Amino acid sequence: MVSVDLEFDGEVFNHSIMVENQFIPTINNKRLNFPIIADGDPLQVDAKFIGAVGGVLKKFEITINGIKGFESKDVKFKQEGIVYIGSLPYKQFDMKEV
Question: Tens of pLDDT along the chain (98 residues)?
Fold first, then answer.
């Protein structure tokens, strides 16, 4: 189960969060316990944010199975987009390959 928590300051027009190539839709910049199918170790994360220069991504947090996997705070838009592409190891979330 994946949870996402976002906070913005300024104009942010659009965002897309994908975990294991599965889109995580947000409601009011949050999503709690969204089920995904893990495809292998590590878990792949791809997040894109589009906003006005000078806006701030105040909080971007991904929690998997109740354990915080990624957190970013106060990232300023120096251009019109912010992209995060990374991976999170299974062992961080007490997950095992089956």
Answer: 899 999 999 989 999 999 999 999 999 999 999 999 988 889 999 999 999 999 999 999 999 989 999 999 999 999 999 999 999 988 888 776 55
Q: Which residue has the tokens 């893990």?
A: 38
Per the confidence metrics, is the pTM higher than 0.85?
yes
Rounded-to-integer distance, Cα 14 and Cα 34, Å: 20
